[in-house]
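Example for tutorial group B:
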């Protein structure tokens, strides 16, 4: 666990000599600055769902999804309290949205654009992608054409640690894992 920073701590990146946000919306991913990212989202398994982040016992861990503290999409408090990708991006764009607000299940409002599920395998990613696209399109804050979106996808270790036991040929899991990720990217780009 990282130590909490004092409230007076300065953000460690010197932003004084660089432009944080582009003057116009970039049309090419190579032009995107951290401040240009308006939406953050996540798909995946327990690591993105924030399962058991501050649990003291295994029993607590199984039932606690601390999405607001998840490394990839947690937006609870700020970077001084919880060092997450979303909290870092909020330093560059205070209007960033989509990050999880606190402990919640994927179907609850507080999860925002975090559709990760505890125990998910790569086969679940296309369903998650469809749900995520629906949430983003239905959110009144979203400008699909002009908002840059950062979507983290973290799934696969459950495939290799659990699902692999059910295949006769261990290499099959690689084939299915790759196929599921391709389908996921295709759905997400719609």
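The residue assignment follows.
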């Amino acid at each position: 666990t990282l130590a909490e920073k004092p409230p007076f701590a300065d953000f460690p990146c010197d932003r004084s000599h660089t432009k944080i946000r582009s003057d116009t919306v970039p049309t090419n991913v190579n032009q995107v600055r951290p401040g240009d990212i308006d939406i953050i989202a996540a798909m995946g398994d327990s690591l993105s769902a924030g399962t058991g982040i501050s649990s003291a016992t295994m029993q607590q861990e199984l039932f606690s999804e601390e999405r607001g503290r998840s490394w990839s999409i947690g937006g609870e408090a700020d970077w001084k309290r919880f060092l997450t990708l979303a909290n870092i991006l909020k330093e560059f764009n205070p209007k960033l949205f989509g990050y999880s607000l606190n402990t919640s299940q994927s179907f609850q409002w507080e999860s925002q654009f975090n559709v990760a599920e505890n125990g998910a395998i790569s086969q679940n990613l296309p369903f998650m992608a469809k749900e995520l696209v629906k949430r983003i399109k239905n959110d009144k804050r979203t400008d699909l054409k002009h908002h840059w979106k950062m979507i983290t996808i973290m799934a696969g270790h459950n495939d290799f640690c659990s699902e692999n036991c059910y295949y006769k040929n261990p290499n099959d899991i690689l084939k299915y894992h790759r196929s599921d990720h391709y389908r996921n990217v295709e759905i997400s780009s719609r």
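Strands lie at 37-44, 148-154. Compare this with the pattern of hydrophobic and polar residues in the output above.
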